[in-house]
Structures are given as C-alpha cells and as structure tokens.
Amino acid sequence: MTTEMTTEMTTEMTASTSPAVTQAISSPVEDVVVDPGRCWSLYDNEYYPGHLWAKHFPTQAEAVAAATSKDKGIVLIACDARDCVKRRHAAIHAERERQCEAELQAAASARAWRLVGHCATEIGKADAKAGLVVTLQLGLIAAAGSGALGATGVLRWAAIAVLTIGVLIAAWAVLPRLPKLSRRTGEGQQGQGAGLNFGVVRGLDAPELAARLRDVDELSAASTEAVNLAGITHAKYARIRWSMLAGVLGLVLVVIGTGVGTGVGA
C-alpha cells in the first residue's frame, strides 16, 4: 500500500451503507471510473492492515456492497493495484503452505500407522514363538521327570528347575497387558493426547466415544500407539530370548545328566 494512494483519514460511510463500514481513501467517495492502477480492499478490523482474509475489488461500489454484507469490523481502503497482487500472491502462498503441511501431516500419519501394523504383526509372531518354546520345554520337563532321558540325581532336578523357569518366562512374554489408567481421571497414564485404546474405550458411552474420535490427532495417536507397541514387541522378544536360553541350559543339563547316569550304570 503506497503513501500516495492511501491516507489515514477514516470517516463513517453514508446511511445507505452499514454503520460498521469505514473508509480510508485519498480520492472522492464518488466511484466514476475504474482506475487500473488502483483497487479497493476490505480488511478485518481486528487484523488491519494485513490479514489474509483481505478481499480486493476493482471499484469502490463493489467493495462497499461486499462490506455491507458483513456484521462489523470492516475497513475499506484504497490501495495500489500492485499491492493487491502482492497480497493475493501472499494469500496463495500461505494456502499452499497450509496444504503442504497437511500433506506432510497425512504422510507422517500413514507411516506411523504402517509402523503400528508392523509392530502388531511382530507381536503376533512373538506370541507364536513363545507358544512353541513353551511346548518344547514342557516336553523336556515331562521327559526328564519321567526318567525317559536317563538323567538322574541332582542334574535331572536342576534341568527340570531351569526348564520350568524358561516356561514361566515364556508365559510372561505372552501374558496379556492391560492399559494402565489413572484412578482419578480414568485416562491413560500418558494423558488424553495419547490416543484411544480398549482400556479407555470401555469406560465411554457411544456419544463420548464419537466426540473423542472427532478430536483425536491422527499423527499423535499413531505415534503414541507405535511407541507403545514397539515397547511391547521388544519386551516380548527379550523374554522369549531368556526363555530359550533357559531351555538350552536345561537341555545341556539333561544331556550331561544322561551321560553321567549312563556312566554310572555301566
């Protein structure tokens, strides 16, 4: 907006226009011709003089007509047409930035949900592996306890004890984990922004759930869920590893006990 084209003189419009409309012009009120070097702009009073809501019109009459359709807070100004173009470009650029940010947000949310799916798949695989480990170790315990493997004495009981520990660790790996809720608010311990899970949903009725789903931040919810599931997956695999190590140690003790028992019997 140039100094030549705009002055800071503000007066009330005539009774034919809205009382809330004011003008700041450097030319007469009459709108006789369209000056290609000048355009008329409307700005929200609260953000004057540069809110991106600004609308630009080639004539004062069009600007006044648009201004009178607003309730209040409209400022009518005359400005250089080049300034109008710059403001249009600024508004377009700002809109493109918002669209770009929304696209980046959507892409990040999609990646986060894919990670959630990957973690959920790995949790299923970990549970299946834990079940297999438990089955094998229970078989070894049964065989060692019955004496079918030939292990005798202290080594046999040591093997059974170690294998039992391995079974318990594997069972710990597949133990269902319930969400920890606050006793005072009923929310997850990580707060309301942490997203929804069955532990929270079970305490809501349908309207409350609908409201929560409308307010949820997709990226925040997906990221929180991915972090939680990644921690669960890591814990499961760590326990399965310890269970397998216990199983290997128990098997070694059974083999040694069998060898000792065979040597003693010979």
From TrEMBL:
Keywords: Antiviral defense, Cell membrane, Membrane, Nucleotide-binding, Transmembrane, Transmembrane helix. Residues 112-258 form the Pycsar effector protein domain. One of its GO terms (cellular component) is plasma membrane. It comes from the Bacteria. Its main location: membrane. One of its GO terms (molecular function) is nucleotide binding. Residues 1-22 are annotated as: Disordered. It is found in: Cell membrane. The chain crosses the membrane at residues 130-151, 157-175, 242-264. The keyword Nucleotide-binding applies. Pfam families: PycTM. Residues 1-14 have a biased composition (Low complexity). The keyword Cytoplasm does not apply. One of its GO terms (biological process) is defense response to virus. This is Pycsar effector protein domain-containing protein. It comes from Kribbella solani. The lineage of its organism: Bacteria, Bacillati, Actinomycetota, Actinomycetes, Propionibacteriales.
